[in-house]
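help with this record:
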Amino acid sequence: MKLKKSGNLRFKDLSVGWELNCGKFTVKVETMEKFTSASTRNKLQCTWQGHKKLGENFTVKVIWQKLKERIRGRISYSKANGKYTIEEIIFPVAKFPVRKNADWLIPLSQGTLISNVDQAVPGEVNSVAFRAFQFCALLAGNQSLYFDTHDVEFNIKYGKLEMKHNQREMVYRGVYPLPQTRRSRRNGRQPYTSDIAAFNGSWYEAAQIYRKWACRQRWVKTRHNPLRDIAMWFWNRGSINEVIPPIEEFTADTNLPVALDWYWWHHNPYDADYPDFWPPREGEEKFRSALKRLADNDIYTQVYINGMAWDLDAASWAQGGSDSIIIKRDGTLFAVEYNIYNHRRLGLMCGEAPIFQGKIIKLAEKLHSYGLPGLYLDMISCGSVAHCCINPAHKHAPGGGNFGYRGYRALLENIKQNNNGMLLSSEECSEGYLDLLDSLIVLTPSSERLNRRESTVPVFSAIYHGSIALFGNYALPDGLPPFDPLWPGAGRWNHEKIWQKLYPEQFFVEMARGVIWGMQPTAANFRREHIENPKFNEEYEFIKSTAKFYYANRDWLFDGRMLAPGEMKCELRTVKFVSRMIFTLENEEKEILTEIPSVLHSRWRSLKGKRALIMCNYTNEPQDIYDSISGIRTMISPRSWEILNY
């Protein structure tokens, strides 16, 4: 560690400083009047004093600790004159020369790669909330950089990467929005430490740096997950006769344990009239009988509700919606129109929303009384730790903080405690609720169908695999997204194409990716036609073979630790994907081409120390592979799975 005269720290080829965002102006290292430092063997304390607007006594302190290949810092400020609001602590501010051919790894879903950020438009900022995990990394081979936070209370925070206008320098900023209190106008700190590391490697090596800290935290608990033995998930939507019979036939065909994630059981249209889901769409008695039928067939079932959204146009909104919603910094309500057919706005609820949460708690108790074993609460795990709130009706300080995490954690704890045995699920990867949730649905195996152009890499699995059951994709055997009959009919497509022929590999890739990443297999909108119509024979056989393979290899694919993928040589293919979801209008679908290996692979070590190479040939042709780590050279049959111990 070395200091520049200004007080910026030199680490490797980085210059590391700080900023304070005061709204109309920014306090920076160079705008402070005095600088002093004191050091011991592995620690360095930097102190700045005096600022023309915040006062001559205003003080900023940063304490740096030198660890092996990283530095760890903590920042605080004090004795501001109280005349200005300090909105954000920005630390670290790391400036470094542009890395060529660099990718930016961000904590979104399993892990998302933004490619070639060295070619970004100058001034453009890549900003991401720390949701799935708490680090970002610039991946550039032996010049890779790692930035994290060690926040055990899950405050709202962001990582931002910017290309400077000279195109020779990049800047990373760690942003902590402050809770706005009288005290914070004078004194404040980031309530966590931040690490910077230089390393040689890829997303996997970055994950291992973080894993050493993450897996020692309280949210990682050793327990037997009751969903460990699920061989296949079916993400089905619709009526009892649409949803249940194909799953019963599948279980009869395979004798494997399966799970149902059931949407559209509720009386209201999807993405409208939330949180008023009760009564069931086909009546209470039919719903109770359906749950018993599923239980008698040993089919684990969870139903959909939204755990964060209240429809601003629902009749119940007047009962307390405005007192529950997140109000953004600009004073507007945080509301999104997801449903393009009926244009209903869903308001995002703050963690401090007792009226809203009371409705969710009451609904959970009602569902539990009907014999429901599991409940899916949409949006909580991905949306509750990302948004500031200034709602004046709330007791929490306006601005940032961890009120979202605290409030939704209390909601989940209440449901768990008062509904003995009920399992809980939510949306997308998120580490903060690992000890309260039993499963998470993750849709990035279908990134192209979601029109996400960035690449997904299984960082979350490389850190937390086995801590929770991950499932999900949007793999549709016939390529047809479901359409809620309660939506306006004008949204239905009039002319469907033969999607199987146009995109013959998409379904197989989407199913295979998740399993390769250590997720439980999933098929979406599975219908009896997919079993009984011969034109779906290949899809149905692949669903069955995937379930059997996963179930037989749970020692690796649920219990095991993911190893570095290493190199496995095989043919590369350009696969065509259609981007079309439930809210895609007719003729507005897009085609995406992605170059991927013809055989997908991952490596695992079981709890007994056995290593395995897991492979899937999703194509309809035999594929030759050569694995440079094990020295194995073999041929993989079409549409098949293979495990090789080495």
